[in-house]
Amino acid sequence: MRLNIAKKIAILLSLVFMLSILSIKMNPTFGEPGLKKKNYKAILVGMNYDQNWAQWYKDATALRDVMLTWDNWKAPGAIITLLGAKASSTDINGALGGAGVGSDDFFLFYYSGHGSFTTNESDETVPPALDKSDETLYASGSPHQYWDDRARSDFGGYPADAYKLAVLDSCYSGGFWNGADTGPAPQGDLEKVPQTVLLASVPENKKSPASSDFTNALIEGATKNSGTGFAPADADMDYTITVQEWFGWAQSRVPPGLIFGHRKGSDPNVPLEEDLNQTTQTENDPQEFYYSSSNLDWIVFLDNPIKVYKYGPTYARPGDTITYTITVSNPSKVNTMRKVSVVDSLLGDVSGSFSASLAPLASETSTFTYTVPLVPLTNIVTVTYKDDFNLNHDASATWTIGTVGGIVVPVDKFGLLASYIGLASTILVGAVATAVYVKRVRRRKEKQ
Q1: Does residue 239 carry a pLDDT above 50?
Q2: Are 364 and 327 in contact (CB under 8 A)?
Q3: What pLDDT, on a 0 to 100 scale, did the predictor assign at position 441?
Q4: Model confidence pLDDT, tens digit, residues 254-274
Q5: What is the SS3 assignment for 233-246?
Q6: In this structure, what is the dihedral angle of CA atoms 411, 412, 415, 417, given to the nearest 10 degrees?
Q7: Checking DSSP bridges between strand 337-344 and strand 377-386, what pairing results, if any?
Q8: DSSP string, 380-431
Q9: Among the four residues 98, 149, 214, 261, which has the most C-beta atoms within 10 Å?
Q10: In the β-sheet with 145-147, what is the strand arrangement from edge to edge?
Q11: Helices marked H in 74-198 — which ranges?
Q12: Phi, psi (rounded to 5 degrees) for 413
């Protein structure tokens, strides 16, 4: 009876364990393992109104340079930049319309520059009354305005299951989300577009810092450390940065008490409240972000490293047959690595000893034998694997045998030691004879 009860308890515990595992798989935490797409595409817009306001141009190019260090952004033509005079509203409309975003795509739209709002409807009021105004990005050329309604239309033209991320570093940029617009239907902003996330530098009733703190923090979060290879925003060091991780890092880095700048101009297309003059104001508002469907585990940055390890004896004698192992590991949580080649400097191509692909977080070990000709012996194994973006990744491992304290002793040819033994014996006999002679000389002197 006791045995039956024990069995029942064991079965019950097993069921609980299995259900917990199932729950973990059905409800992953952010970045575990994260959601990626097959293709990554981006349009980066940086304004350059004059020499005093050129930093936004540099924001876009700096972000592009960091993105190109990540595997998922390295495909030719994946990133389009619209800079300065080449970033009119017509250019932006054309680029968004021709982006060719598909169902398997992750699309990123970034803008750094001035932002504004309109009050041209009788029932709209200026900020801080929320959700009553249409917001706009201030582009070059004429017309200057790229409206939130147009953004909704452009993003809404992409497949519903494509991932769409807008990152706006401009005044009132939060107004591109959840706007209660009063114009003709359809009304609303990016929140109306499925699978869309907006990261905004400020809420819709606030002005954004002219110092690009938001963009600088985003760039810093995605910049990989030259020593460790990990970026600061990759908190769990899994070679990926999700929306949650990226914005979370930026939010933690933006300092309180920001300085905002504007200047006056004569352009009649710029609303009076947004004319750019050199006045400044200080505000202490947190950066904000807006999202739909809680899609914060989308992967924005992804690397696909491959690792190889080699283990064997630390020393051997010439003529010995040794056994060693080669282990290939895939540390990515989301990417399958496909084998291209595994080459051993002693045995040559040993690719046939490994499977055609490695699943995420998988590793594979093969064992090899080799007859040692001479020592010391250095062996190098080099592997090449291809990732889901069709990029090759190399890794190598080095292993050395036959060194003991830096002296190599070929013990199976012991006769080679004879000369050394003879020399040592001669030195020893000479030392003893010298000591005896010195002792006798001392005795003779003492007798005298």
Answers
A1: yes
A2: yes
A3: 60
A4: 655 443 333 223 333 433 333
A5: CCCCCCCEEEHHHH
A6: -10
A7: antiparallel
A8: EEEEEEE-TTS-EEEEEEEEEES-BTTB---GGGGGGGHHHHHHHHHHHHHH
A9: 214
A10: 115-117, 135-138, 145-147
A11: 89-97, 148-156
A12: -125, 60
